[in-house]
Amino acid sequence: MYKHLFGPVPSRRLGISLGVDLVPHKTCSLNCIYCECGRTTRLTLERKEYVPTNAILSELNEFLKDNPELAYITFSGAGEPTLHSEIGAITRFIKKEFPQYKLALITNGTLFFLPGLAEELKHVDLVLPSLDAASEEVFRKMNHPDRDLKIERIIEGLTGFQKNYKGQMWLEVFIIQGINDTENEIKLLREAIHRIQPTRVQLNTLDRPGTDNRVKPATEETLQKIAGFLDWDTEIIAKFTSRIQIAAYNADVENTILQLIKRRPCTLDDLCSTLGKHHNEVNKYLGTLLNQNIIIAKVMERGVFFESLKREI
Ligand code: SF4
């Protein structure tokens, strides 16, 4: 049983990906209104060794010793991985001991202005930061940041990082209807993207209701319009492709989730604790089942519940 590793998870963007979670649920510098992992319970900019580095290295040693087939080892989780002060040492370890694996980092990009972080991340082959706003007002509405974070500093940090970074940067922009899809905000986002110069931009939106009922997904038409306007290499990643096209899609995991949901509606937390699986891993399956119209999501008092469209009698 691994405490800090999860998956391998089926990821449309990354293929077969082993997840490494470096911070406890939910430690983050943001508290985004669309976060699929629930509310941030520790909102912080403090970098420290949130979980023991040795424990992570020993789990990695154990998992990788049989040389499993993986497209990426991905730092992601229910929180912000760059808050872990030893991320540089961990990436160095993997590249030294298991050089055959590529490393990816899913990050909110808020700490890239910190001196030294670029050096710590030089072994990462692919960084996937997010940027949902370019004005301070929309940034606060959308991402509820730590009070010391300023959007201009974050954009500067991403721009400076990208200038010397040797790997690829895929910048994710999450669009929420009525919040960051206004003409003015998209114009500012375009300017920020042209400054940062990511390898590509990926547009995303909600695939389920947020815990806040006012949070609505953008339509496909809006995403297409924004993609055209950004004037950059942009793809829309909002919808999952068919399950059989996703590497590492595990039919047994899917069936177990479906069986549980068929018996009674469950929240993400219910499913994670019953299955003993990480939030991100279960989220991947839920996202796919939602997009295939096999399950639906409903907002109730205790949170978002997932229901099967076919109930067992
Ligand atoms: S940055 Fe990611 S983990 Fe943190 S609150 Fe936003 S969506 Fe959730």
Instruction: Please work out how many helical segments DSSP would assign.
Output: 10
Biggest beta sheet attributes: 8 strands, mixed
CATH topology of the largest domain: TIM Barrel
How far apart, in Å, are the first and last alpha carbons? Answer: 34 Å
The coarse silhouette is globular
Give a list of the ligands: iron/sulfur cluster
Elements, N to C (H/E) = EEEEHEHEHEHHEHEHEHEHHEE
Question: Can you name the CATH architecture of the largest domain?
Answer: Alpha-Beta Barrel
Quick one: CATH class of the largest domain? Answer: Alpha Beta
Task: Indicate the mean pLDDT.
Answer: 90
Strand content: 15-25%
Count of β-strands? 13
Radius of gyration equals 19 Å
Class per helix and strand makeup: alpha/beta
Number of domains: 2
